[in-house]
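User:
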Amino acid sequence: MKADSSASSAPAAAKAGKTNTTDKPAKPAPKPKPEDKPFTNFIQEDLLPSLTKSLTAREQTPISLTLVEGERPVVGGRCWMVQGELPSERRFWLCFEADAITSGKTIALAESGSDPSLLESFLIDEKRINLALLESRLLQRLNGQKWFGGN
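Assistant: Predicted structure:
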């Protein structure tokens, strides 16, 4: 019986030796996604610069584009907001219920220096929120207001 057990352990040892010599080098860790950053860092370092670039490309260079924590337009209550002012006194507020891009979001818009009068849900059906989605849907909503020229 001892001969059988030592014979069966020899192939296992040989197998273990083979796997060590054929292992591939470890892949480098994937680059962290911008969305994995803390909320304020993501907004200030990624969303605002990207949004500024996209708005400028549409000939709507922002007069101001900032992240603030303050009173939500129309309905009140404190929240985090990306506040933007564009030429022709057009303004928007992208509001986040909490300091997380996955939190509930609303948007308010105002033309010609008036106060916003309507607060709309924003990205309510999306499971995964990322930089490209936030930016493209915000631009799509502003374009729906006809803020980007003749459309």
